């Protein structure tokens, strides 16, 4: 019953891009997965995410971080990635009492498959960022209709569990 009311976010993850689709609105997005932190009275605070954070590059006492930028894995810094994803999810899904369901689709660093540690890390990352339910999809890009129906094709990809 609540399945049709629960917002769904399809997140396609690359080290330099977090793109996807918000359903039911159908809004497409593409943001750099960066977080701007500012040091105020010795304490670091998140002040912007995505394009807004990237625009702050070079500002005094502002640090731009990417928790997804690592040569071997998509998850480089869990804490930074968590805050980045948390703020981006809030920005994209808006404020609602229903937590979104997330389909996370990593698109890089897949050689040899994801390790159990990587699967668990990506799953936990989404849960900590505010997802009600997480699907980890590896394979071809999903269509809006497949996402709406939550039908993951048996050919062209696989749904992984943590």
Protein traits:
single chain; 162 residues; alpha+beta; Nucleotidyltransferase, domain 5; six-stranded mixed beta sheet; three-stranded antiparallel beta sheet; Rod shape-determining protein MreB; MreB_MamK-like
Written overview of the protein:
With 162 residues, the protein is of the alpha+beta class. The chain has one domain: ATPase, nucleotide binding domain (Nucleotidyltransferase, domain 5, 2-Layer Sandwich). It is built from four helices and nine strands. A hairpin with a 2-residue loop joins strand 4 and strand 5. The protein is globular, with a radius of gyration of 16 Å. It starts with 7 loop residues before the first strand and ends with a strand.
Structure described in brief:
The chain is α+β, with helices and mostly antiparallel strands and 162 residues long. The chain is 24% helix and 33% strand.
